[in-house]
Amino acid sequence: MPKGDLNQEIQGIETIWGGFTFVLGFLIVFRSNQAYNRFWESVTLLHQTTGEWTSAYSNLLAFCSEEPTKQKDVAEFQALLSKLMSLLHCSALQDLCELEDDTLEVLDLGGLSRQTLQHLRDSPDRAESVLLWIERLIMHADKSKILDAPAPILSRAFQELSRGMVTVSNMRKIRIPFPFPYSQHLACVLIFYTALTPVVASQAILRPLWAGIMVFVVCISYWTLYYIAQEIDQPFGDDANDLPIREMQHEFNAKLTFFIHPLSYNVPDFRPDASQHIHMLGSNFTLDLTDSHNVVLQPLEPAPVMDEVTAVKAERRFSEEPLAPASLMRPTENSRSPRSGSQVLWEPHVDPLNSAVLTELLPKVLPEEFELSDIRRILEAAGIDDKGDKGDRSGPQTRRTNTAASCRLSILSADAQEAYTASLTALSLRVEDMLSQRESALNDPALRRQMYRLKEALTEVLMEQCRV
Questions:
Q1: CB 300, CB 313: distance < 8 Å
Q2: What is the pLDDT of residues 132-144, one digit of tens each?
Q3: Residue 37 and residue 41: Cα distance in Å, rounded?
Q4: Which of 127, 131, 97 is nearest to 247 (CA)?
Q5: CA dihedral in degrees (79, 80, 85, 91; nearest 10)?
Q6: Where does this polypeptide localize (predicted)?
């Protein structure tokens, strides 16, 4: 065959091969998009269902009567409601998932009769059966005045329960597999492409090494996309890339158990006359508190540290002793009102000496225009009384304050300690500059005396840290 005709034939083959590759690429992209959409739709619908049922549960707890004569009935209603909600969520997940071991965690069902459980076992749709029980339970509670809410408001709970079940029914379509003709055709085309690509590459690329590398990369890429689509197409299973069904059921049960605690649905106590101020509230629920009540901080043994997260417990007692550092804490369930005189346990959620927190805090506690209240907050946070006399700075309280600061610093990494020390040094220098410049804001003798005490306290803390 003449060389010109051979080149023309090769060009024709490459043109046809390019069209074939385009069809294969279109099928791969179509299959991947369908699998990706099915995966994220499953995630969205599942979280929507959990949210609807959690909201309905919290609404029903809020609607419970507060009459003392009905508290026993209210407790029985809440206990049965929590068990049925757990069973509802479990039944819905078992209906959706394809697990080798479909045993999921539920709250204790020991109070339900054997006949009831046998009836549930034989139900063609367990989730619908449990939902019917919950609706009947709500109607009975409303008739018995266990629920104290107008009918239009109570109907919201029914709407959220029904919307959650509709969402579960919508998720059942995920069990229908991707159309078999598309899947079969794509698999055949991939096999054909893998077999013929080396032949075409040998004619288009002169060097065998480069031809082999290009064939390997292209074919592996197509097959990878194909198997990724196969993997995420059915997210309700036991595979490593499927949804964490058991963990989600466990988290739902944890919510039910937490919300049924009286502190969860009772209005928080509020004292307008309390002199406790919250300066910052982060998404991780860490608080920067300054409290005029007398506090003593006693750090305990730290738990294992993961990165910068520290689980350290501290006791917070209200007594007649001077104030010591207590900041960036969150109350546990044992917390009580500051005026009760009882012991209160606090648990830090993140490192209380985090340099990023201090960077945000310093401009707040030292604004451009200083007032006596601002300096008092700083002194309280540093564990210094704000009495007129200087007092004995080497006394037991000062040593306890410095020891507490050293204990708190010792739980941090070296980098965190260095960052915290640098922040304290910057604060100390700023206070010293203010005192040396005799700013007009410090003309008040009481304010100036407190600033000197703040400088002295910062110096002591820094010296103690240097010793450590």
A1: yes
A2: 999 999 999 999 9
A3: 6
A4: 97
A5: 130
A6: Membrane
